[in-house]
Amino acid sequence: MHFFEALTGRNGVLSLVSHFSRGLSKLRLNSLTVVHNFHIRRSDNTTAAQRLFKTNHDSLLEYIAENIIDFPLPRARKAVNYFEPLYLQAKSA
């Protein structure tokens, strides 16, 4: 049971994620803060933002889906020339 006690709460989760990913970037920490405040719900079905501001808000996932910009295209891959030792080119005599 002592293992699970270290994971309780937001700080425990952030500590675990930080430990396994060798630190958190500022962007990732901010993203996890938004998820914690607006998406994770208690047993009474309220988020931290609802309890703080005493008002309801739209679903975080719906907000992201409505406001997301198209993803950039993947980068072009370099052409790879594989050496095939069994492939012989025919030469004219």
Structure explained in plain terms:
With 93 residues, the protein is an all-alpha fold. It has a domain at 25-68. It is built from 5 helices and no strands. The termini are far apart.
Q: If helices are DSSP runs of H or I spanning 4 or more residues, what is the number of helices?
A: 5
Q: Rg, please? A: 25 Å
Given as residue ranges, the uncertain stretches (5+ residues, pLDDT < 50) are none
Helix content: 40-55%
Shape estimate: elongated
Provide a brief overview of the structure:
With 93 residues, this protein is mainly α. The protein has helices spanning 2-5, 9-20, 26-38, 48-53, 60-67.
What topology does this entry show?
Layout: H1 2-5, H2 9-20, H3 26-38, H4 48-53, H5 60-67
Please describe the structure with a list of short key phrases separated by commas or semicolons.
elongated, 93 residues, 46% helix, mainly alpha
